[in-house]
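User: Sorry, folds how?
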Amino acid sequence: MEKNKTVSTDILEVQGFDISPQLTYPLFFLLLFVYFTLLFSNIGVLLLIISQKSLHQPMYFLFCNLSVNDLIGNTVLLPQLMAHILATERFITYKQCVVQAFQSHTFGSASHMILIIMAIDRYAAICHPLRYSSIMTTRTVVGLSAAAWGVSVVLVSILIGLTVRLSRCRSTIQNSYCDNASLFKLSCEDVSINNIYGLFFTVLLFTSSIASIAATYFRIAFICWIKKNKDLNNKALQTCASHLVLYLIMLWSGFLTIILHRFPNYPVLRKIASVLFHVVPANLNPIIYGMQTRSLRHKITEILKRKVTPS
């Protein structure tokens, strides 16, 4: 009977988290603090890089890409999530849900693509330092960044496009926010094409990012091992450690989210993992890169000293 039933309403109910009244406001203020920290740190990094001419370099331009991506991805998610924590009824329109799913998946895809470019940048800086300025020109970095965003938008557009074509027989989003899997679970139609393309999308994204980053880091490690240069090893450790830590956090949180969608018996874990996938890398990006990158750290320290020291 359910297969013949089509839901025409444009209003969807978001399942969200089942939170006890005692934890409602503590959780709300925790997320509010996380969101303001995310805004302050990422906007701060953007303004610092834009205002300081000495930071107008390929690596810092790529930082800007990450910060913009983090701001967009979490602004779409966190304000609505906080509103739903306080609300007794959680509703969203179907169009808003589609937009949120599109931006959520674009956030994840673009993060992988940008980190691939950053790995290439580090490889060029460490393995070909004399040719670095001719390899990673402004034009090259802008072109690679545009390609990263363009590929992400095209892949996610197809992903979401295959879902919006489906009719709906349910009206409850079984997640804390809208994503592609939650959207096509609203349908009672055959979703084989969605599953096949979703698998292709995931395998392509993860395989390309893992292969690219593994290849560049193996090459960097090989060069450092052959040359046995202490300064080169320190440079590689300083610039690559932050990138690798961030990538591994994002990779495993993404893996966990995808895997838990296949196990409906763990809805709470899935919801927590999907939120952490957005929040954790976005908060760690400016902290890790700010602490690991000498020029950026120096500029931050310099500005703080100016504020503390009376004129």
Summary: The chain has a mean pLDDT of 83. The beta strands are 11-14, 91-93, 172-173. Residues 14 and 90 are 5 Å apart (CA to CA). The longest helix spans residues 192-227.
